[in-house]
């Protein structure tokens, strides 16, 4: 299995698996952001994970910006994926797009030689 396919599978898992937990919570509490943040930071281990994910999201945003030229017009998709599904979806999507662009450039270079 090539890297691009692995990244795509990780992206899909990164969308589905977190929503298996988030969906029932929203069904019970609605989109109560105050309660969600309160519960996320209710103890130190929750705060650890919350801070880690928030900083990881910033890293994905920066990485997408740096890779903007390499990825092309779809550079914004990983940012949207992070905002809608989380880092577990956004990072694999960014790597998927980057890998696809690299593969295309390598193939193009091979044809021109």
Structural account:
This protein is mainly α and 113 residues long. The protein has one domain (3-108). Helix content is 85%, strand content 0%. The chain has 6 helices and no strands. The chain has helices spanning 3-29, 33-40, 44-66, 68-71, 77-84, 87-112. Helix 3 (44-66) packs antiparallel against helix 5 (77-84).
Write the layout of secondary structure elements.
Elements lengths: L2 H27 L3 H8 L3 H23 L1 H4 L5 H8 L2 H26 L1
Helix pairs in contact: 1-6, 3-5, 3-6, 5-6
By secondary-structure content and strand pairing, the structural class works out as mainly alpha
Mean pLDDT: 91
Form type: elongated
Provide the gyration radius in Å. Answer: 17 Å
Q: How many distinct beta strands? A: 0
Number of domains: 1
| Contiguous uncertain segments of 5+ residues | none
